[in-house]
Amino acid sequence: MKANKGKKVVSYLMIIGMTVIMCLSSFTAATGAEAVDGPETVGVEAQGMVCTDADSGRVLYDKSGDERFYPASLTKVLTALVVLENTKDLDKETTVSDNAVNGIDPSSSHIALDVGEKITIRHLLYGLLLCSGNDCAVALAEETSGSVKEFAKLMNEKAKELGMDDSHFTNPHGLFNKKHYTTPKDMAKVMRACVKNKEFVEIFSTIKHVVPKTNKSKKRELWNNHRMVKTKYAYYKGVVGGKTGYITESSFNLITYARRGDLGLIAVAMRNESGQDAIVKDTAAIFDYYFKKYHVEVLDKNDIPKSKVSIDGKVVGTKAKNDIRLLLPKGVKAEDVKLDVKPYDEVTLPIKKGEIVGKVTASYDDRVLGASTVVSTQDVISRTQELFRIGAAIFVVAAMLAVAIAIVVAGKKRKKKRVFGKK
User: Fold this and answer.
1) Diameter of the chain measured on Cα atoms
2) 120 Cβ neighbours under 8 A, 6+ residues apart
3) 415 and 337 inside one domain
4) Alpha helix locations (H) across 316-382?
5) Residue 32 lies in a domain
């Protein structure tokens, strides 16, 4: 009876071992397995121009978008953003310095601030964005950082944060300096960040702002000098606001944000030699093209089919992490796009469920229209971990078999002793 019990123990342990190995095998099987669209028919005079989707940042039109230009007063959109992000109380009063009044070219744009004048940061921002006040720019820089030089450091830090890799700023107003430059693409990046700031949008979209009487001045009326906003002769439907920029060294520049329904566009035109009317015409032509020919649809992440990708030789299940916002040509629907899932080159095993592993892109007519990251739908171990687990399982099974054999051998010895004892 004891021997039979020993055999049963061995049988049970072998079954357990085979079960462990089969489980490991099934586990191994289960876990192992953006384009530029240029409207060729639209000609623009500006030497550099881009149009981007304000929501995704995708570049739609690109004419010398990476070329460096002197931005002139386009600089002030970055100045405003830096001030807004570094100021807790916009209604705090600041005292205008001599440098803010007399340290700028007197023939350049200003709102006639006076030395010792007390005025709020909010009113200075209106003077900066609506009237392009260079005196306002210096006053804001000094209030924010103590000096123009220190404020320029904040500007460059923010530019770097926004991915403006071909830009460098030396002052808050844009008056000429050889080391003060940017590109149309970089200016589109900062404008995209600006239009996400509610205070910025409220200020730069205002048509008229009244600065109350101060200790040095009667009340001031500040008017928006962008020609495409409401009430202006070049009004363009959907234009929210923007910024002009001119100095002799840079010629005419214009940055504009417009929105119609779900589609928001940012146009940056730099160095148009023909004047304000011409650069406004450039902007309107580009806006016409995209507003008339494109529309927005959203592809829900739950409607994006789950896919599988190969990572380190193992198949990994994936699903979209976010909805895909599609900028589609008129007549094309979301279901018409082609979806393609690819893993990121730097992703390696092991992978945890929910970890970002790649990207799904939506394209139509060989043009990328939108994208979303994809995440793993499962835990996936590496080959090393897999071998370690198999080795550990084999070791456990071997140990259990050794114990079982030892039990059987011990039982036989006890049986022999009893037999010999009877004799």
Assistant:
1) 129
2) 90, 91, 92, 93, 94
3) no
4) none
5) no
The residue type found at 330 is K
The DSSP element (H or E) to which 328 belongs, if any, is strand 324-329
Q: What is the pTM of this model?
A: 0.78
Per-residue pLDDT of the chain (423 residues; tens, 9 = 90+): 544 555 554 455 454 444 444 443 333 333 222 334 556 667 899 999 999 999 999 999 999 999 999 999 999 999 999 999 999 999 999 999 999 999 999 999 999 999 999 999 999 999 999 999 999 999 999 999 999 999 999 999 999 999 999 999 999 999 999 999 999 999 999 999 999 999 999 999 999 999 999 999 999 999 999 999 999 999 999 999 999 999 999 999 999 999 999 999 999 999 999 999 999 999 999 999 999 999 999 999 999 999 999 998 889 999 999 999 998 988 999 999 999 999 999 998 899 999 999 999 999 988 888 899 999 999 988 656 555 567 667 867 777 887 878 787 777 766 666 655 554
Position 140 in a domain: yes
Beta bridge partners of 315: 310
Residue 105 to residue 136: CA distance in whole angstroms: 13
CA–CA gap between residue 62 and residue 83 (Å, rounded) = 30
Q: Which helix H or strand E contains 363, and what residues bound it?
A: strand 356-364
CA distance 308 to 237: 45
Helix ranges, 295-423 (H): 383-422
Of 77, 69, 79, whose CA–CA distance to 49 is shortest?
A: 69
Residue 241 domain flag: yes
259, 294, 329 - which closes a domain: 294
> Closest Cα to residue 184, out of 44, 358, 9, 304?
44
Q: What residue has token string 């240029």?
A: 38
For residue 235, count other CB atoms closer than 10 A to its CB: 13
Beta bridge partners of 272: 252
Domain of residue 318: give its range. Answer: 300-376
Q: How far apart are CA 212 and CA 122, in angstroms?
A: 12
